[in-house]
Amino acid sequence: MDHDGDNGDGDGQEFRRSRSHFTDRVTADGRDGWPVAAGRYRLVVSRACPWASRSLVSRRLLGLEEALPVAVADPIQDERSWRFTLDPDGRDPVLGIAFLAEAYRAREPGYDGGVSVPALVEAASGRLVTNDYQRLTLDLATEWRELHRPDAPDLYPEGRRDEIDERMEGIYQDINNGVYRAGFAKGQDAYDAAYARLFARLDQVSEHLADRRYLVGDTITEADIRLFTTLVRFDAVYHGHFKCNRNKLTEDRVLWAYARDLFQTPGFGDTVDFDHIKRHYYQVHADINPSRIVPRGPDLTGWRSPHHREQLGGRPFGDGTPPPPPPGDEVIQPL
């Protein structure tokens, strides 16, 4: 069974994340056979998963809710894969399937590999299109531009892409995936190495953000989305469950303020479901938490406290505007 967003497996002491198996792209010109089209695809996510959460934030910021409907899986998956037990009769109402694995097998009969979210599925055929979480959000920001809402922000500005890519690579290796390398390490040396890299990178990012509001330029970009989805889970699950416990996020003045700034920005915090996050990690990873007890803490009310990052300037949406409130059926119970 995969761990969250794609297929993780152990190799000796060190946790290694395998590559996405299905990497077709949905593009404006349809060069992979999958053209961008409103309503043609269904985005299958778990709100527990940081990789899927990237796509939820991007979709909100870009105003793609109607063009790209979402299917939310139960945060507790089983050996048969992510389940649609949150829906009536335990089936996705559009795809008609009970388990995401069915869409994978519709694409590749007999497929028995990892089943991950986010997954883009063609609604009419029920076939998986892609589970390439690294590429998916970049394509939403660029290839799907004709379907963006008016005044949507540019999350992957052409003139900044090299800088964004470089920033995202270090964050991915040492933070996004680093918490997993610490949490799923099978030996002390592997854990120590992952722990050291994680906090060295967090310290570097904290220093970088001390005098600037966002990671690249003065607007929100894809890099901020990718960092946020790990930071928002840090104290709730990674600090204790994954033994990433040198300090809590709340104990880093810069990163805690930065994360709160984004959380309070429309499109970020309104996609976060701490209940799904905590139940998934603590109940699915039985090898780490055999009792499956879900901790009561931490206190989450601080996410709404003033952050004062606006004093650094910046224009969150650049020349664009904030997204409207989420659709009624996507509203998450607020803190």
Automatic annotation (TrEMBL):
Transmembrane segments: none annotated. Residues 1-22, 293-335 are annotated as: Disordered. CDD domains: GST_C_Omega_like. Residues 13-22 have a biased composition (Basic and acidic residues). Pfam families: GST_C_2. Residues 157-284 form the GST C-terminal domain. This is Glutathione S-transferase C-terminal domain-containing protein.
